[in-house]
Each structure stands twice: as C-alpha cells, then as structure tokens.
Amino acid sequence: MAPKRAGFAGHGYNAPMSALIEVAVIVRRPRSQVFARLARLESHTEWMGDAASLTFLSSQRRGVGVEMLVETRIGPLKSADRMVITEWREGEAIGIAHRGEVKGDGTMELCDYGAGWTLFRWTERLSLPGRFGGALGEIVAAPVLKLVFKADLARFAKLLESEGDIAPEQG
Length: 171
Known about the structure:
Blueprint: E1 19-27, H1 31-38, E2 51-56, E3 67-74, E4 77-89, E5 93-99, E6 103-112, E7 118-127, H2 134-162
Antiparallel strand pairs: 1-7, 2-3, 3-4, 4-5, 5-6, 6-7
C-alpha cells in the first residue's frame, strides 16, 4: 500500500502521493506592478500556455473564495480543473486549491528582488487521477510540469516587461 501524506490543509484531501513543482523567475518590474498583473485572474490564459480557457464560477473576481473552471491541455492530455482561491495577500501572494480531477494546492508568491525587480515563485503540489497514471503519472509529470510552468513564468515576465506601468485594480 502506498504511503499516505497529510491532507492539504483545509481541503479535506489525503493524497497517497503527489508531484511537487517549484519554479521561479525574476521580473524586471516592481512587486506592486507584478501583483497587479497577477491579480487579473481572467488574463492568466494569456501567459499560461497550458490554460486553454478560464471561466469564473463565482461572481467574485478577486480575493479568497473566487471559483474558476480552467480547461487545461498539456500535449494530448486535457482536464477541467476546478480551482478556488484560498489565499490572497495583496501585493504578496495568491494561493489556490485544485478541486477537479487534479487535486492539490499551489501558491504564487512575490518578493522584492533588488531595486524595482520582483522574484516570482510558483509552487504546486498536485495529485493526478488514475486516467493520468495516478502516482506513477506524477513521477513522469513532475519534470514535464516544471518545464511547462517555467515557460509560463517566462511568458508572464516577457508580457509584463513589454507593457507600460500597470495600475492596481480597485476592489
């Protein structure tokens, strides 16, 4: 029998195993501008190559409690990923719970990096369903997902660095 890991805090999920993916990028913009762009959840499909579409399931668009359905594609694999925002620290971090076929949680954290630059760290711990190979699939998927997420962050940085100043949204 596979060893059990502690469930994700507050999500009632106890995964036998999970893939841990950690990536980071330095964005040549101040943290306030990076967060302003990151907080525009509806725009994530512009820089997440694996996110084919995003539909809000709640009327709320910012903060803890936002619910979304993200159609995800990596190669021939597709899934409908139901996500809920579980953490929202203005200017610092957004946390998410995956509650669809793929289970887990993730955090996108920002911190100052030198004069006017930002370190953007993205961490995900994901458990795959049987149709994606379950625990064995996670072993194979982790390095692939790391490459996908790294490319996503590179696109995010390039997109943001090519834009003018971004004003934070009110709300």
